């Protein structure tokens, strides 16, 4: 909420600057986003009067104006605004001036005619377009007749004010009003504040009850009141009212609508005005919407309603979304003669759900969501009626038609002085604490150092003694509280084994050339159900922000594929990413809270190394990402053999290039190529991925990492080449070699596979290098030959290989 510093000073005597005041508010009440003076950065923008104008000879829309700016001679200014007129006082940016966005105005020529300055619209000197009144949105702005020619324009349009932008927390709904802010400042600075409520004494002879009826059909409304005002004169609001509205970020519309918005800013109570003659049946019914009903809002947007939406309806259809926005069909126009004021308290939860669901967040909904003071409705309605009578010459009916009214009692909270001082570490006296409560306008009864505090309903954030302690602390001053050091034994901070493994995993994958990516935990139902490692049910949000963030993810791969698509769409062809995070599984459809499981995944597309003069990189294949995975898994010191078992059970993966990953018989994930159809759907090139259940890896037993002695004795290598049947796998051969290789076999590597010319059909040639080493002594040829012969014999026996 933007708070006017000048408006505050109308009620309370402040002897501090706006910046100092904002700093005090931030330390005591709510956060302050900024303090802005709208005229800051502007210069040489003055009041001018158009003396004459003529059409530009080479344009059908430009005008040549002679403008009096208080200098010896009028300035000639070429202007294209459609509403430019003689004798009007206007905003003039002189040559050398600075307007919005630091734009400098220079002497120029407009189609050959010299122009010495610029006649300005409000948005051209810094006003946001969405607060400029509609009558001035397409042309220049006319200043009041009493504006002094040649003087700065800023005071006439409220630009010399300082606006304090409050970031009000959900619990402090009272701060979304001038009066709520003033009450807080009165307590903070211990200064009196004059909060008056205007009331009309001269009413018409007509009755509201004779002209309208109202009723509430549900329990989500605590209070609903209407009053009829006849024979109003709808016109533009006086400038002082428009200034207060646009400085608060609200567009002036007309005097009736502006008064309701002014009440909202001043008191924090949203109001609405209906054109009575457009209300069918003259009925106001607060109910839930019916299935299929629609409403066109004041923003001219059509909204499809459902049975959970709260609406105000006439005898035919909805005319407002309760607590959110009014309907266009009963809006106030220049032809309106009779109006109905609405002042109500709608359920905060229902208003919030409705605003979020339809993505209609208004100033009214913001206040209803945080709660308004139900006991202040009559005061607000009376002052609004007084203003309409004053500014719109309306005939106000004395009676107020009330459909429901459930006033609240003030809350009583008990607390002791000892508890306050114990929590805050202070030595406050009874008189000091009592003074703080009275400054907050709380009624206090003191007995034996115990306080019985009566909290008014406008402070809906105070319910328990801890809330009162917070009030004492902030009014006394957080900076005045004594500082104390924590007591207790100091401990050495360290990561848990799980945290350490996760951190090591990140470091390892980054060292292997992958970049850490972070994706949204929310995705679409379709993407959530891809790459599933187990049977599960979806976890959908009740009120998603968008259709792309509807379901909690059940895999990490789709998020990485989205990241690859984003990069490749921007001509980044080589992408290697990993992500560590949680996925969300549900064992059954009725499970409320899903199981959160740690996963770690990677996705690679393109090449892993950059092209250089001596290097021509190739795109990654299955074995590249498998090598990265094996390197990562070996760093975890898992106690058990790692196996890769070909599978085609993942419909999103290539059926011939995908494998399950097993550790000592335990399934931990999968690896392979993304199916070309899925890659096309994501609009990415050939991509390889793996996805691991990190929680399972964390739970698996690990080997103790021990120092491995580096042998000082030489190693001996032996190569073996053989013809084997094509169905025999490398793993089968490796298992035999490792099992029969003897105690000194330290390494086995496949260095050649061939099935071309001179190799019989159904056969392939495979060549291995075996390394032997004794860490305690020098190996002899006899020892190595004996072990090597044993390997050959068992290979022939197991697979009928032909040693070449």
Automatic annotation (TrEMBL):
Example GO BP: phenylalanyl-tRNA aminoacylation
Highest taxon, organism lineage: Bacteria
Gene3D superfamilies: 3.30.56.10, Bira Bifunctional Protein, Domain 2, Ferrodoxin-fold anticodon-binding domain, Nucleic acid-binding proteins, Phenylalanyl-trna Synthetase, Chain B, domain 3
Top-level EC class: ligase
Keyword terms of this UniProt record: Aminoacyl-tRNA synthetase, ATP-binding, Cytoplasm, Ligase, Magnesium, Metal-binding, Nucleotide-binding, Protein biosynthesis, RNA-binding, tRNA-binding
Reaction(s) the record says it catalyses: tRNA(Phe) + L-phenylalanine + ATP = L-phenylalanyl-tRNA(Phe) + AMP + diphosphate + H(+)
Compartment(s) of residence: Cytoplasm
Binding site for Mg(2+): 461, 467, 470-471
Domain B5, residue spans: 408-483
Textual note on the cofactor: Binds 2 magnesium ions per tetramer.
GO molecular function per UniProt: ATP binding; catalytic activity, acting on a protein; magnesium ion binding; phenylalanine-tRNA ligase activity; transferase activity; tRNA binding
SMART domains: B3_4 (SM00873), B5 (SM00874), FDX-ACB (SM00896)
Pfam families referenced in this protein's UniProt entry, alphabetically: B3_4, B5, FDX-ACB, tRNA_bind, tRNA_synthFbeta
Family to which this protein belongs: Belongs to the phenylalanyl-tRNA synthetase beta subunit family. Type 1 subfamily.
Record note on quaternary structure: Tetramer of two alpha and two beta subunits.
UniProt name for this protein: Phenylalanine--tRNA ligase beta subunit
Lineage: Bacteria, Bacillati, Bacillota, Bacilli, Lactobacillales
């Amino acid at each position: 909420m933007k708070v006017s510093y000048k408006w505050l000073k109308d009620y309370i005597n402040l002897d501090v600057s706006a910046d100092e005041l904002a700093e005090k508010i931030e330390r005591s009440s709510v956060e302050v986003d900024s303090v802005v003076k709208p005229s800051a950065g502007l210069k040489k923008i003055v009041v001018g009067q158009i003396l004459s104008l003529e059409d530009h000879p080479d344009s059908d829309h430009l005008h040549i104006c002679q403008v009096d700016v208080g200098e010896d001679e009028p300035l000639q200014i070429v202007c294209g605004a459609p509403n430019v007129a003689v004798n009007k006082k206007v905003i003039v940016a002189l040559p050398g001036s600075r307007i919005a966005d630091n734009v400098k105005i220079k002497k120029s020529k407009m189609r050959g005619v010299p122009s010495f300055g610029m006649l300005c619209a409000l948005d051209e000197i810094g006003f946001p377009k969405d607060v400029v009144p509609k009558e001035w949105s397409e042309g220049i702005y006319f200043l009041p007749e009493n504006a002094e020619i040649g003087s700065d324009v800023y005071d006439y349009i409220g630009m010399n004010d300082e606006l304090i932008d409050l970031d009000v927390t959900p619990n402090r709904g009272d701060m979304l009003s001038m009066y709520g802010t003033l009450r807080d400042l009165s307590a903070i600075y211990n200064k009196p504040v004059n909060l008056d409520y205007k009331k009309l004494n001269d009413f018409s002879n007509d009755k509201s009850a004779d002209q309208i009826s109202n009723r509430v059909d549900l329990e989500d409304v605590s209070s609903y009141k209407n009053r009829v005002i006849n024979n109003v004169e709808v016109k533009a609001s006086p400038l002082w009212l428009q200034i207060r509205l646009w400085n608060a970020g609200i567009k002036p519309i007309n005097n009736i609508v502006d008064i309701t918005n002014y009440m909202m800013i001043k008191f924090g109570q949203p109001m609405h005005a209906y054109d009575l003659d457009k209300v069918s049946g003259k009925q106001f019914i607060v109910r839930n919407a019916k299935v299929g009903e629609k409403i066109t809002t004041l923003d001219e947007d059509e909204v499809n309603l459902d049975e959970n939406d709260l609406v105000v309806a006439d005898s035919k259809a909805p005319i407002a979304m309760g607590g959110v926005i009014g309907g266009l069909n009963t809006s106030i126009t220049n032809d309106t003669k009779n109006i109905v004021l609405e002042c109500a308290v709608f359920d905060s939860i229902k208003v919030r759900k409705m605003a979020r669901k339809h993505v209609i967040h208004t100033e009214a909904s913001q206040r209803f969501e945080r709660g308004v003071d139900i006991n202040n409705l009559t005061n607000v309605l009376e002052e609004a009626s007084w203003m309409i009578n004053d500014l719109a010459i309306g005939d106000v009916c004395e009676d107020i038609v009330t459909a429901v009214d459930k006033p609240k009692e003030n809350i009583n909270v008990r607390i002791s002085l000892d508890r306050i001082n114990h929590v805050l570490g202070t030595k406050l006296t009874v008189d000091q604490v009592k003074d703080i409560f009275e400054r907050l306008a709380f009624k206090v009864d003191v007995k034996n150092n115990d306080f019985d505090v009566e909290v008014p309903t406008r402070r809906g954030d105070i319910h328990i003694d801890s809330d009162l302690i917070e009030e004492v602390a902030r009014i006394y001053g957080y900076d005045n509280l004594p500082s104390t050091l924590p007591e207790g034994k100091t401990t050495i901070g360290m990561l848990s084994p799980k945290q350490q493994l996760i951190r090591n995993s990140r470091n390892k994958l980054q060292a292997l050339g992958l970049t850490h990516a972070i994706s949204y935990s929310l995705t679409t139902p379709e993407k959530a159900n891809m790459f599933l490692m187990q049977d599960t049910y979806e976890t959908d949000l009740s009120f998603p922000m968008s259709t792309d963030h509807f379901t909690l993810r059940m895999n990490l791969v789709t998020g990485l594929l989205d990241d690859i698509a984003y990069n490749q769409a921007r001509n980044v062809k080589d992408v290697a990413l990993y992500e560590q995070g949680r996925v969300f599984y549900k064992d059954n459809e009725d499970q409320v809270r899903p199981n959160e499981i740690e996963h770690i995944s990677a996705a690679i597309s393109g090449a892993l190394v950059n092209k250089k003069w001596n290097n021509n990189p190739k795109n990654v294949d299955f074995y590249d990402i498998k090598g990265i995975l094996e390197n990562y898994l070996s760093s975890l010191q898992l106690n058990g053999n790692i196996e890769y078992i070909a599978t085609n059970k993942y419909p999103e993966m290539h059926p011939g290039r995908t494998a399950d990953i097993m550790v000592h018989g335990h399934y931990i994930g999968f690896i392979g190529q993304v199916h070309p159809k899925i890659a096309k759907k994501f609009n990415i090139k050939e991509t390889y991925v793996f996805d691991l259940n990190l929680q399972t890896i964390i739970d698996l037993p690990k080997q103790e990492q021990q120092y491995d002695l580096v042998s000082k004795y030489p190693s001996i290598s032996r190569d073996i080449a053989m013809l084997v049947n094509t169905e025999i796998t490398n793993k089968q051969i490796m298992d035999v070699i490792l099992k029969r290789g003897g105690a000194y076999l330290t390494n086995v590597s496949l260095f050649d596979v061939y099935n071309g010319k001179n190799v019989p059909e159904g056969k392939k040639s495979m060549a291995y290098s075996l390394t032997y080493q004794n860490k305690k002594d020098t190996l002899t040829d006899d020892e190595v030959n004996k072990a090597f012969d044993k390997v050959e014999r068992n290979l022939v026996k197991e697979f009928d290989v032909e040693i070449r």
